[in-house]
Amino acid sequence: MAVSEDVRRLAEPDSMETSELDAWYMDDSEDDQRSPHRKTPNEAASLEHLKKLGVLYWRLKGEQDPKLAAIREARGYSYKDVITVSPEKLPNYEQKIKSFYEEHMHTDEEIRFVLEGSGYFDVRDFDERWIRIDCREGDMIVLPEGIYHRFTLDSNNYIKAMRLFVGEPVWTPLNRPIDDHDSRKKYVATFQASEAFHETPGSISSASPIAAH
Ligand SMILES: [Fe+2]
Questions:
Q1: Annotated binding residue at 104?
Q2: 5: burial class by Cβ within 10 Å (0-12, 13-18, 19+)?
Q3: pTM for the whole thing?
Q4: Quick check: helix, strand or coil at residue 151?
Q5: Could you tell me the residue ranges of all domains in the chain?
Q6: Is 88 part of any known ligand binding site?
Q7: Closest C-alpha among 113, 145, 120 to residue 33
Q8: CATH 2.60.120.10 fits 5-175, yes or no
Q9: What is the 55 CA–ligand 1 centroid distance (Å)?
Q10: I want to staple 136 with a disulfide (CB 3.0 to 4.6 A). Which of 53, 91, 106, 118 is the partner?
Q11: What is the pLDDT of residues 167-206, one digit of tens each?
Q12: Was 181 annotated as part of a binding site?
């Protein structure tokens, strides 16, 4: 069934003007992965920049927010479940959160809506730097297919999140390096190559790995 214009409008990701997103470039310290890893002074990453990387973001007012239903309808997110990550709820907690923190990608979007608690999604910028996205209650985030990323809880050690998916879910992480995978190539062609075009319109053939081959 076609999605109505009203639903489509309601499902629009937050814009720069309305966003309450907090994201920053990470420092290089070897501290616990759960600490914020902000630089001094802080170097913020804008929502506009995250959009160029293919990351979408909404701040919702709980599960009853009509935007949630609209996003699910507009984007075809038929599947949903709820996952709780905490030392009490997850066996082998310390080991598990280390595995979430391995750099990886998926063959589909990763979609999370934080119901309680908080955590960090880290995504790779075009220049390989890590951008840390602070996700807390009410934040909904979509990471595109093929983006290199990782997840960690913060020092509160607790998150309860809704996981959404188009059809039957596939959660398998594919650890980096996996540059030859179709999902990765698609990501590079869609986002990284267009970014190269954006930054250096005169040198697309040398700047884009897709155009170079
Ligand atoms: Fe993931």
A1: yes
A2: exposed
A3: 0.90
A4: strand
A5: 5-175, 179-213
A6: no
A7: 120
A8: yes
A9: 13
A10: 118
A11: 999 999 999 999 999 999 999 999 987 765 555 444 444 4
A12: no
